Amino acid sequence: MSAGDAESEVVIEAAYILLKPVSDDKTGTISTQVYVPGRRKEKTRQFLNRLEESALILSENAEDLTSSAVGQTMERPISAPAITDYLKKNKRQVLLLLEENPRQWPLIRQFFKPLINIVDKAQAVRQIS
């Protein structure tokens, strides 16, 4: 094995693989799901992408970027409270993604109130601390 081959090799230690037992209420069986680090972050990225796509459609039609309008414009419509709930539950990943990708999601950063509220609250907490 050459030095170049060693760099492309990935080793996952057993300590990083978390198996979560899950019971199926209908059948009573127990299965195991594998937790993959970063999966939640990727799902959050996809959600932000979908919000931005919907915001773009609304913007092109000169419509307001309300939670309700954005949610109804999504490929699979979602309610305004569900959007807010998702953003709040995944606040840490949302803020991290926004920080890591300063040029992504320009419409929702500037005009989408649920996202603006999360960012504003996080900045206020940082100023107090």
Describe it for me?
The protein is mainly alpha-helical and about 130 residues long. It folds into two domains: about 10-35, no CATH class; about 40-129, no CATH class. Helices cover about 60% and strands about 10% of the residues. It contains seven helices and two strands; from the N terminus they run H-E-E-H-H-H-H-H-H. A two-stranded antiparallel ribbon has the order 1-2. A hairpin with a 6-residue loop joins strand 1 (about 20-25) and strand 2 (about 30-35). The radius of gyration is 19 Å and the shape is globular.
Sheet with most strands: strand arrangement: 1-2
Q: What's the mean pLDDT score? A: 84
Q: Give the low-pLDDT segments.
A: none
Specify the number of helices.
7
In N-to-C order, the SSE pattern is HEEHHHHHH
Give the biggest beta sheet. Answer: 2 strands, antiparallel
**Amino- and carboxy-terminal Cα gap:** 51 Å
Query: Which percent band covers the strand fraction?
Result: 5-15%
Q: How many domains is the backbone divided into?
A: 2
Q: Could you tell me the radius of gyration in angstroms?
A: 19 Å
Helicity level: 55-70%
Assign the structural class, choosing from mainly alpha, mainly beta, alpha/beta, alpha+beta, or little secondary structure.
mainly alpha
Shape: globular
Total beta-strand segments: 2
